[in-house]
Design goal:
Blueprint: H1 5-20, E1 25-28, H2 39-50, E2 59-62, H3 69-77, E3 83-87, H4 90-95, E4 97-99, E5 110-115, H5 129-133, E6 136-140, H6 145-151, E7 155-159, H7 166-173, E8 180-183, H8 187-193, E9 200-201, E10 205-208, E11 213-217, H9 222-237, H10 240-246, H11 249-258, E12 264-267, H12 286-298
Parallel strand pairs: 1-2, 6-7, 10-12
Antiparallel strand pairs: 3-11, 4-11, 5-8, 5-9, 5-10
Length: about 300
């Protein structure tokens, strides 16, 4: 009897998982030691592991050392950790296994500007892309976004890692740079943390480009990759992923920023990834997202 590729992949998954993922602990990397970091991503990991308990009980454990994105990748390759989450690019997808479900619904590519309040007079509603490209911006030195912005003609300085991006916000506060583009999921949390600095949210502009935040695992652990995919399929299908997403106030505020009609949208290309997903908004295109994950499991 002929069986479908997906059914065959599920049979293979069962064999692989029994052999490889029946581990007691699953170590995830983190950028900060603060208890507020990664609550959403950890909640999703808990949910998808609970949704696949037939493949073993797993305890999630944070890596003891906060680290940069590039160091997180190295920790997976050295088998010091099992899973990380970050914005993707082609280089990361060549080194690690991406789980191609945009955890932030594609909002990682919606960027608003954090500025010194003294800059407001320059950034009026009538300002165009040439005005924005005349600004000096700052991003993390190992973030894929720095390449995206540079490729689109923006001036960007790279800054090394610091706790809760303190050095970047300090650069804005001290007028050492003109703007810090932040994704709409994180910006309100950041501003609350840095409310003692001379920084503010710019009101009239939004940078938008294809940008997806995924879970990643080591290339030596395809069984774990498929367990994560299967778990995501199940919590997508039963609505649990959407409930988890909506539990976070920053996510609800991000939707407001994304739909703000007062903001001029500046569309950018992203040369760091060779594709554009038609299911990034998995809340609206659930069936497409599930089929894409099923296809990855069968390949």
């Amino acid at each position: 009897m002929k069986i479908s590729r997906f059914v065959a992949s599920m049979m293979m998954l069962h064999t692989l998982l029994i052999a490889s993922v029946n581990a007691e602990e699953l170590v995830y990397t983190r950028a900060f030691a603060d208890g507020d970091y990664g609550n959403y991503h950890v909640a999703v990991l808990h949910a998808l592991l609970n949704a696949t308990k037939e493949y073993g009980d797993v305890t999630l454990v944070p890596h003891p050392q906060p680290m940069t994105q590039s160091r997180q990748m190295l920790s997976l390759l050295k088998e010091e950790a099992d899973v990380m989450w970050s914005v993707t690019n082609q280089a990361r997808e060549q080194k690690l296994i991406p789980i191609r479900l945009p955890l932030l619904k594609g909002f990682a590519g919606f960027r608003v500007l954090v500025i010194n309040p003294s800059r407001r007079k320059e950034l009026t509603k009538g300002a165009d892309s040439r005005t924005l490209k005349s600004l000096t911006m700052v991003q993390g030195s190992d973030w894929p976004d720095i390449d995206v912005l540079t490729a689109n003609g923006y001036k960007v300085e790279g800054e090394d890692w610091s706790l809760w991006f303190d050095s970047m916000y300090s650069m804005v506060s001290r007028n050492l740079v003109d703007a810090f583009p932040r994704n709409i999921i994180e910006v309100h949390r950041d501003l609350e943390r840095h409310k003692n600095k001379d920084v503010a949210l710019e009101q009239f502009h939004l940078l938008k480009y294809p940008n997806y935040e995924y879970f990643f695992v080591s290339p030596d652990n395809p069984a774990l990759a498929n367990r994560l995919r299967l778990g995501l399929i199940r919590i997508l299908d039963n609505g649990e992923l959407e409930r988890i997403f909506n539990n976070f106030e920053g996510h609800r505020k991000a939707e407001i920023l994304a739909n703000d009609k007062n903001r001029k949208v500046h569309e950018l290309g992203n040369p760091t990834i060779p594709y554009k997903l038609d299911y990034a908004r998995w809340d609206k295109y659930k069936d497409l997202a599930i089929r894409a994950l099923e296809k990855e499991m069968s390949e």
